[in-house]
Design brief:
The chain has helices at residues 3-18, 38-50, 61-71, 78-93, 103-108, 129-142, 147-157, 176-180, 183-190, and strands spanning 27-30, 54-57, 98-99, 121-122. With 191 residues, it is mainly alpha-helical.
Length: 191
């Protein structure tokens, strides 16, 4: 349900369609945890359904709690847990993990080492966050009046967040731009 994940999934489905591959061979995994809101989860599930990919949900809450207990701390292990699941699933099915991290995150170091910056193929790595937004908006315009357009527009209207901190009243509490500043400014400096 996040912006970068959305672009990565759109890239995959468009590539599969150009190659006449069945999009059901794309395995999209949503891994809700403490900070996941119903908005982002429902957008992820709706996106998977509309793009006709194979959808899997793995709730990582218990895995994360066990790790918190085992190492006696409550800092972020969610990104690494998600990456571990993605890598293991890719190994199981002979697939590739498609990375979601964008150029802005790489330039800022706004990722979890050995977590969300790891993949076998990083489709967003050369795309700044502001361009990610424009690309998703462009794809939304291709589906004018369809459910996919509505989902993509809602993803665009959702604040950028890693959703690592527990949500409050089903609202995102950790907004990336409140922490690192506006992406328009970062992307200007990158340019």
């Amino acid at each position: 349900g996040g912006l970068d994940s959305t672009l990565a999934l759109l890239v995959c489905t468009m590539a599969f369609k150009k190659l006449n591959y069945d999009t059901k061979d794309i395995i999209a995994i949503t891994m809700p945890c403490f900070g996941t809101t119903s908005r982002t989860k429902n957008n992820a599930l709706g996106l998977m359904e509309e793009l006709t990919v194979t959808s899997i949900e793995v709730d990582i809450t218990e895995s994360v709690r066990i790790q918190f207990r085992d190492i006696e701390q409550d800092e972020n292990v969610q990104a690494r847990t998600r990456t571990e699941i993605l890598m293991n699933k890719a190994n199981q099915v002979g697939g590739l993990v498609i990375g979601t991290g964008d150029l802005s995150e790489v330039a800022l170091g706004w990722s979890t080492y050995n977590g969300d910056h790891m993949s076998m193929y990083a489709v967003n790595v050369s795309v700044p966050k502001t361009l990610v937004r424009y690309l998703v908006d462009y794809v939304a315009s291709l589906y004018h009046g369809e459910k996919l357009e509505t989902i993509l527009k809602d993803i665009l209207d959702t604040p950028v967040s890693p959703e690592l901190l527990p949500q409050e009243n089903d609202q995102i509490v950790q907004k990336t731009e409140d922490i690192v500043g506006p992406y328009e400014l970062h992307d200007f400096f990158i340019y």
